[in-house]
Amino acid sequence: MHEAIARLRAEGLARIDQAATNEALEAVRLALLGRKGELTRLLRGLVDLEPAQRPAVGAALNELKLEFGAALGRRQSELAEHHTAAAVCDLTLPGLPPVVLGTAHPLPSVLEEICDIFYGMGYDRDEGPEVELEYYNFTALNFPPDHPARDLQDTFFLGTDILLRTQTSPVQVRTMERRSPPLAYVFPGRVYRNENADASHSSEFFQIEGLRVDRDISLVDLRETVAAFVGSFFGGERPTRFRPHYFPFTEPSVEVDMQCMKCGGRGCGICGQSGWLEIMGAGMVHPNVFKAVGYPDDAYTGFAFGMGIDRLAMLKYGIDDIRLFYENDLRFLRQFRGVL
Ligand code: DAH
Question: pTM, whole model, 2 decimals?
Fold first, then answer.
């Protein structure tokens, strides 16, 4: 009897090991442990044995039953693993397409780069709404009621006193209403103008506004800040100059030019033969703006500036058409891979 059990054990374990599919394994299980299985048959045969032999043989058969059970379970998980591995490694499948990674768009990259330069000078950052009240976009910024910039021709009005902001300057006002000096902020964001698109105009573009207010801030502080920014952004020592200009919210107001990086000031097609490129508007904050936000008379002075991010990006990367930023032509965008 012990011989028969030993033989069944060896055979049974070998058959379990050799079962190549779940179905084959199930057939082996039935053949061994099923109602008509070989082990079951031996168990039934216990009654024919001498009573003295029964306990030992019974125990051996029960042990074998457990061993078969364990072996069947093990083989079942092997088959499951094998099945998954085979599916993953199916060499007949067509190859996967290469994973295409996108790139940051040049405008937000340049925007962040400019903000970083100002963070280095101790500036904070804030943002305001693109759908703005006429009050913040114009009135609080000292635009006279009949100023042409308020005109429908320049401004997208959404209602009688609500519009798409034409500049980031209103964020100055919103911030000064909430905070008292000293303060130094940049305000980047998207602005809108009712313009026909051409190589240098777009009906939406990005600006960044700067504002610094404290006691005794002067035009000299503005000059130094502008020079430090231009040096960082464009690299090297780059002469800048202030030209008198008019903005309602600054007095005095200036336009800032930078020596043309293409010709070094000699005059070329990029700078219209002048040797200079206009890069921002700026000036000392007008007392009427301080009045609108409730700052005390004469206690503070400040400077403000505003730049077109698109224009700065175009100058830095030699891009000659602003529309390229908004057309999402991959041939254009791919050129910035690894540059920004
Ligand atoms: N907001 C002006 C514009 O869109 C730019 C500007 C000029 C902003 C002078 C300023 C400034 O803060 O002082 O043309």
Answer: 0.72
